[in-house]
Write a structure and sequence with these properties.
- It is a single chain.
- With 190 residues, the chain is mainly α.
- The chain is built from 10 helices and 2 strands, in the order ααααααββαααα.
- A two-stranded antiparallel sheet has the order 1-2.
Length: 190
């Protein structure tokens, strides 16, 4: 696999932001990078390769952003809220790439399954852990943690992206999805 440097990835990110996935042609990516399309071809660089690398970097950013919530002290509810805020932060950081992925296919977020397509565990397992912690300490009501983690990732992440891009809401305003999601999970004493 060809090595993609940060400059080329930034050029791809800019092309996806300006033209969307389908409009980010090799020529437009090359133009953003200040090289010729032939140079990209010779190096074996495609928009799919660039998007794949940007996706992997976003996954790593997601893991890093959720780590403080997973390792913090406090009840499960507060830590889950912190994690969902982090989901919004990572979505904000990678809005253009997320839109490009969504236009192409959202398969990067799913695992192969025979009957039902599941959200990749890298996205849901941290939320599932926090749900179980909250159920255990009573700060969250009992739910199916695996299913609810899938719903939360999609509810908060994609709603945030839609409100930011489709409705052009500010990041602060779009983050209102977090307390709505948390409110639906609060334990009896909340």
């Amino acid at each position: 696999m060809p090595r993609l440097d940060d400059e080329l990835l930034d050029a791809g990110r800019r092309a996806f932001a300006r033209f969307g996935y389908h409009g980010a042609t090799a020529e437009r990516i090359a133009e953003e990078a200040g090289v010729s399309r032939v140079t990209l071809h010779r190096r074996g660089v495609s928009k799919e390769l660039i998007l794949g690398e940007l996706s992997e970097r976003a996954v790593e950013a997601y893991r890093a952003a959720l780590w403080p919530a997973l390792t913090a002290s406090g009840n499960g509810r507060d830590r889950l809220e912190r994690a969902l805020e982090a989901v919004c932060g990572v979505a904000e950081e990678h809005l253009d790439m997320l839109l490009a992925l969504r236009a192409q296919s959202d398969l990067v977020f799913h695992e192969d399954a025979d009957e039902e397509v599941a959200t990749r565990s890298v996205f849901t397992e941290p939320l599932e852990r926090l749900l179980l912690d909250g159920i255990s300490d009573g700060s969250l009501r009992p739910v199916d943690a695996q299913e609810t983690a899938t719903m939360l990732f999609n509810l908060v992440g994609w709603t945030y992206v839609h409100l930011r891009t489709g409705h052009r809401w500010s990041a602060e305003r779009a983050r209102a999805v977090v307390p709505l999601a948390i409110g639906g999970l609060a334990g009896d004493h909340e």
